[in-house]
Design a protein that fits this description.
The structure holds two protein chains of two kinds.
Chain A: H1 12-25, H2 33-44, H3 62-68, H4 77-82, H5 88-92, E1 102-107, E2 110-111, E3 125-129, H6 135-146, H7 154-162, E4 167-172, E5 182-188, E6 193-195, E7 198-203, E8 208-217, E9 221-231, E10 236-244, E11 250-259, E12 264-271, E13 276-285, E14 291-300, E15 305-314, E16 320-329, E17 334-343, E18 351-360, E19 366-375, E20 381-389, H8 393-401, H9 406-422, H10 431-447
Helix pairs in contact in A: 1-2, 2-7, 8-9, 9-10
Chain B: H1 8-13, E1 26-28, H2 35-44, H3 49-64, E2 87-89, H4 104-112, H5 119-124, E3 126-132, E4 135-139, H6 142-148, E5 151-154, H7 155-161, H8 163-169, H9 180-188, E6 193-197, E7 206-212, E8 223-228, E9 233-241, E10 248-251, E11 254-259, E12 264-271, E13 283-294, E14 300-307, E15 312-315, E16 318-321, E17 327-336, E18 341-344, E19 347-350, E20 356-366, E21 370-379, E22 387-397, E23 402-411, E24 417-426, H10 429-437, H11 442-453, H12 455-458, H13 463-476
Parallel strand pairs in B: 3-7, 6-8, 7-9, 8-11, 9-12, 10-13, 11-13, 12-14, 13-15, 13-16, 14-17, 15-18, 16-19, 17-20, 18-21, 19-21, 20-22, 21-23, 22-24
Antiparallel strand pairs in B: 1-2, 3-4, 5-6
Classes of the chains: A alpha/beta, B alpha/beta.
């Protein structure tokens, strides 16, 4: 339905040069060149989507398009080492505690073995980076790298692929239960960098594993990442994405999760940063009795713009999905939520629910929300709900009557609103640190003078 | 509740009952559209200069734009040059002075439709304006309304008698540049209804317009304008039917409502254009733009619609809540069966402070029909304490149909409260079982459950319409069960 309109300030030659340079700069992933070329051709057919594209009507990528040529590619390996990259002691207070067992760290899009700790050989996990793959493994991966579909306009996915330099390939062996989460940190370090990371994860039959994806940046940078996860029969996945980019950073990400028979996913998406962030999450329920539970929390304060698009495709009978997204929008922030549920004709006996609740805290804040149901099967139970409102005055009164000052009472109510999502994280040791991050983020908006209501 | 003892056989046999064709002499323009056609229509209607110019402006603009394609509708392209833009029942040079002079065949048509044009009108207490193909043929109760100061007449008559009102209000709610179909309508509209309620007047009776497409290969483009001055109140009903034909006919109407301070308009529609047959042949393409501008404080508008007909429905009655404390309501039941498609909903634009809106939409999809609710709730930064509540429910009957919901919510004021909820399901086995156990046939049980599902909307309809709407619902869904 969306029509394609080329953005006006699009210069394809700039992008071509940058993409072609990658092969020389990063010889280890030179085998990706044909893929990058194809993706670039797809991206060049119009450049970034514009607000005339229905899927992007509330999120303009003009700012990204203007800055992207400067933020296209990471520094080469030599350049990076020359800069004396971040040390593990620098890193440790920025990453989540309690996940040290398997940690994979990427700085400016490149894997850092010194900062990472690989899983034990008998853990049931095989992890490799794109740069370290053997030749025979490369060709089978090329096809997988190319196949991604979803709500996100494929041009943004193509953009990410055109500048792909490194990524992770994670395989969970059949029957393995990996208790330690795979913790992947993507850090953009230093000025004007771009990173375009990729995670390819596969859970074999009857396995279970957790993936935590954490995005951090220090100044203006661009991240455009793609995560692809396939769950085989009876597999069970826990997935947490934590986005804590710098206030001037751009973050464009998409996740594509496919579920086979009796498999399940529990996904939590937390947006606590970025100047402009767009996250597209797609879940394909391909097998019968698949189950998805999705949670999301976004806090847009300052002038940040946070966009969440989700798509749940029910393609098989007896599938279940539930989705809860919450937004807190303060100062001059803007939140966008689009949650789509599609029930295909075959998918009888589907249960699907979606709710999106938003708190608007200040006169300059804006929320645009659109839950969508597209249903082609009759024996289904589907519902969605969406609310926008301010802090409940009754709740405030209750707290104030008990001697709690107004500001504190407000913070308490907002934190409680967000905490329900944090408590849904199935990795208990993360509840406390994530709550702290949430509190810190909310306090940030208080500091901005003259903006708070 | 006792079930209507309708024989199921009879029920199943009931088809579109307004599908007859009235054999009546009419004057019809050959198909095609150009500036000469527009000049012809304008000349025929003896219109003042400003109106012709406005039509031409609209036409020129229309030529520069494309048909919208964002709706979830699929149809073969419409050839706008293959439609006749003017068709009028032939009559003596003088228009009929009273009901007795109206062509008896026309009256018979309206009799068949069950529309009270004559004495029955008096009993029903409803003033009726009947539009046949492109022109209005009769308006009842003019005298009584005039006593109250209410103007209720065909649009073309209002152009002659009250050109200043037309010039002041036409196109101020739906400008000709609004959308493709509004531009087309602005260029070629032929008639419609005009209502003016003066300050402080409560219209003494319900006003009603019946639209009928009769001639083949014609399009119908009517325009309705209702102005409710300060402190006035009016309830307006609209009904429409068309003959059964194998071709698709185009209907593109524009309805403009204006409410001043403390005024209230209640606008009810029972749309029963011919929906096409089981194979999806024929039927009306219904592309309608309806909007109310609540200009004054404390004004109120209420749209109630029952959409049962048309092969394609594209319709979003909207409220611009400009005045402080103004209220917008939208109650809708849409029924699609066989191969019907409907993309319908509303827009609530909150601009004034303390504005409130309610949206209740009930969709029933059966056969191979596809139906979408598409709505927008927009809260401007100026709309302090605005409030919206939206509920959309869809009922699916059969595994080949679809029901979709696309609500847009754009909120720019932190004091606003906006709520939306939607559900989609089929009739519960337990509900059916409960009814069957008490001796109801499956058909009756389904009818009863469906009527209950739509109750919130039917309650808003004026009584005569509510009865008609319920019967219509049963007919529209016939064959969808079992």
């Amino acid at each position: 339905m969306s029509t394609r309109t080329p953005s006006t300030d699009f210069d394809a030659s700039l992008y071509r040069q940058a993409s072609e340079n990658l092969g020389r700069k990063f010889p280890a992933t030179d085998w990706l060149s044909p893929l990058r070329g194809k993706a670039l051709a797809r991206f060049s057919n119009g450049g970034f989507p514009t607000i005339r594209d229905e899927d992007w009507r509330y999120t303009s990528l003009k700012r990204v398009a203007r800055r992207s040529s400067a933020l296209l590619h990471p520094a080469s390996q030599q350049e990076q080492s020359a800069e004396h990259l971040i040390s593990s002691s620098d890193l440790v207070h920025r990453i989540l505690p309690g996940l040290a067992e398997i940690t994979m760290v990427f700085v400016n899009g490149m894997y850092q073995p010194d900062l990472s700790s690989a899983p034990a050989p008998d853990s049931g996990l095989i992890i490799s980076t794109l740069g370290a793959l053997k030749k025979e493994e490369q060709s089978s991966l090329l096809a997988r790298l190319e196949t991604f579909t979803g709500t996100d306009d494929c041009r943004v996915n193509a953009f990410s692929t055109a500048f792909l330099t490194d990524g992770l390939v994670i395989d969970v062996l059949a029957g393995a239960t990996v208790s330690a989460p795979v913790y992947v940190v993507f850090l953009n370090h230093g000025n004007t960098v771009g990173s375009h990371p990729r995670i390819l994860m596969r859970l074999a039959a009857n396995s279970s594993a957790s993936l935590v994806e954490h995005h951090l940046s220090e100044t203006d940078s661009l991240t455009s990442g793609i995560t692809q996860i396939e769950c085989a029969d009876h597999a069970s996945l826990t997935y947490l994405k934590l986005q804590q980019e710098h206030d001037s950073a751009f973050h464009l990400a998409s996740q594509h999760i496919s579920l086979a028979k009796d498999s399940s996913v529990q996904a939590i998406n937390l947006d606590l940063g970025a100047g402009l962030s767009r996250n597209g999450l797609t879940v394909h329920m391909n097998g019968e009795h698949a189950e998805a539970r999705l949670h999301g929390l976004f806090i847009a304060n300052g002038t940040s713009h946070i966009d969440n698009h989700t798509l749940v495709e029910h393609k098989a009978p007896n599938t279940q999905s539930s989705e809860v997204y919450r937004g807190v929008i303060d100062n001059r922030g803007r939140g966008v939520f689009n949650g789509r549920i599609v029930v295909h004709q075959k998918a009888q006996k589907t249960n699907a629910q979606l709710t999106n609740a938003n708190l608007l805290l200040s006169p300059g804040a804006e929320i645009d929300t659109k839950p969508e149901l597209e249903i082609y099967a009759d024996d289904v139970k589907c519902s969605h709900g969406s609310t926008v409102g301010r802090i409940d005055n009754n709740a405030l009164f209750y707290l104030r009557a008990r001697g709690i000052p107004e500001d504190e009472a407000k913070q308490l109510v907002i934190r409680a609103f967000g905490n329900e999502i944090v408590m849904a994280i199935p990795i208990p040791q993360l509840h406390e640190p994530v709550t702290d991050l949430l509190t810190a983020r909310l306090e940030q908006s208080d500091d901005e003078p003259g903006l708070s209501a | 509740m006792a079930t209507e003892n309708t024989d199921i056989e009879q029920l199943v046999d009931r088809k579109y009952r307004h599908g007859f064709i009235t054999d009546i002499e009419s004057e019809t323009l050959p198909p095609g559209i150009n500036e000469d056609v527009i000049r012809f229509i304008s000349d025929k209607k003896n219109e003042p200069e400003f109106l012709l110019n406005w039509r031409l402006k609209s036409f020129r603009y229309w030529q520069t734009i494309k048909e919208p394609d964002w709706a979830k509708l699929h149809h073969s392209p419409i050839d706008y040059q293959d439609i006749s833009y003017f068709s009028a029942p032939k009559q003596a040079t003088d228009a009929p002075k009273s009901m007795d002079e109206v062509d008896p065949k026309l009256l018979e048509t309206y009799d068949k439709l069950g529309i009270p044009l004559h004495e029955r009108a008096r009993l029903a207490g409803v003033a009726v304006d009947a539009v046949f193909d492109s022109v209005s043929i009769a308006t009842t109760f003019k005298g009584k309304l005039a006593e109250a100061g209410v103007i209720f007449c065909p649009f073309s008559e209002a152009v002659q008698d009250h050109p200043e009102l037309i010039e002041q209000y036409l196109g101020t709610v739906v400008p000709y540049r609004d959308n493709f179909f509004a531009a087309l309508n602005s260029a070629v509209f032929t008639d419609g209804s005009f209502v003016y309620i003066p300050k402080g007047v409560r219209c003494p009776m319900e006003l009603s317009t019946y639209f009928r497409i009769n001639e083949a290969k014609t399009g119908q483009f009517e325009r309705t304008l209702i102005i409710a001055e300060e402190g006035s109140h009016v309830s307006y009903l609209e009904g429409c039917t068309a003959p059964m034909r194998d071709e698709n006919q185009l209907h593109a109407a524009v309805v403009e409502l204006v409410t001043m301070k403390d005024a209230e308009i209640k606008y009810s529609t029972v749309q029963n254009w011919y929906p096409g047959d089981e194979q999806g042949r024929g039927g009306i393409y219904n592309f309608v733009t309806k909007r109310c501008d609540c200009r004054g404080a404390n004004s109120k508008v209420s749209w109630t619609q029952v959409e049962a007909g048309s092969a394609i429905t594209w319709k979003y009655p909207s409220c611009i809540l400009r005045g402080d404390n103004s209220v917008g309501e939208f109650y809708s039941v849409a029924v699609t069966n066989n191969l019907q498609q409907a993309d319908t909903g509303t827009k609530m634009i909150h601009i004034g402070a303390n504005t409130r809106s309610t949206i209740i939409s009930k969709g029933i999809s059966a056969g191979r029909a596809q139906q979408s609710y598409r709505g927008l709730v927009k809260i401007f930064p100026t709309a302090e304490n605005a409030r919206n509540y939206t509920q959309c429910d869809s009922l699916l009957l059969g595994d080949q149909c679809g029901a979709h919901t696309f609500p847009y919510m754009e909120v720019k004021n932190p004091t606003a409260i906006v709520e939306h909820e939607a559900t989609t399901s089929k009739i519960g086995e337990d509900q059916l079982f409960y009814c069957r156990q008490r001796g109801l046939s499956e058909e009756d049980a389904v009818n009863m459950i469906v009527n209950g599902f739509c109750k919130d909307v039917f309650r808003e309809l004026p009584m005569e319409f509510a009865v008609e709407a319920q019967a219509l619902l049963n007919v529209s869904l016939e064959g969808a069960v079992g």
